[in-house]
Amino acid sequence: KYLGGVITLPLAPVFAFSVEQNHQLVIQRFGKIERIIDSGLHWAPPFYDYTNVFIGMRTHKFSGLHLIEKNGSPIIVSAILNCKVSDATNFIVKSQGKLEVPVNIIEGAIRDGCKSVPLISDTENDLRKHSDIIGEDIKVKAQMKINDYGITIDSIKITEANYAPEIIQQMLMKQQAEAYIKARSHVVDGAVGIIEETI
Length: 199
Fold this sequence. Notes:
Number of helices: 4
Radius of gyration: 29 Å
Strand content: 25-35%
Number of strands: 10
Largest sheet: 3 strands, antiparallel
Structural class: alpha+beta
Helix content: 25-40%
Distance between the termini: 120 Å
Strand order of the largest sheet: 5-4-7
C-alpha cells in the first residue's frame, strides 16, 4: 500500500518451531546453508529447507568382518564404534546427512588395522591380548580419514577376534602341537641343566 510517500509491503508469515535436545537444525534457503540452530524454540521465515541432525552419541556394531590377519590366517572380527556429529554443516554437505558414508570408511580402517597384526603372538601386540591398544590405533587412523565428514570418533572397541570356522580345528591342533614342543623343550633343557650341575 502507498501511505504518505511510504511503501508498505505485506508481512511474510513467520513460522515457529522447536529443536530437541541433542539435535541441531541446518537451515537452507535456495540451496545454500544459512545457519545452524541449537535446541530450543525458534522462529524462521518461509521458503526454507531444514535438516534435523542428531548430535548425540551414536553406536554402530560391525559384526563378523572376515579378513586375513598378519600371519595369513582367515579370522572373524567384530567391533563397536561410538561416534557423534561434531560439525553439522560438513555432515550435511559431505554425506547428505547420512552416516553410511563415514561408517564405510571406518569399516575399511578397522579391516586394515586388523590385517596388520596377528591374532595371537608372543612377540608383538596381537588382537587377543592387546585389542584396546589396536583399537585406539585404528581410531586415530580412522579419524584422519573422516575429518571432513563432521564426525568425531569417541572409541572403537574390538569385541571379538577368532579364527574363521573353516580353520579353527586346524589352528587348535597347531597351537596344541606348539605347546607340546615348548613343554618338551623345557623338560630337555631342565634335564641338561641337571646333568651339567651334576658333572
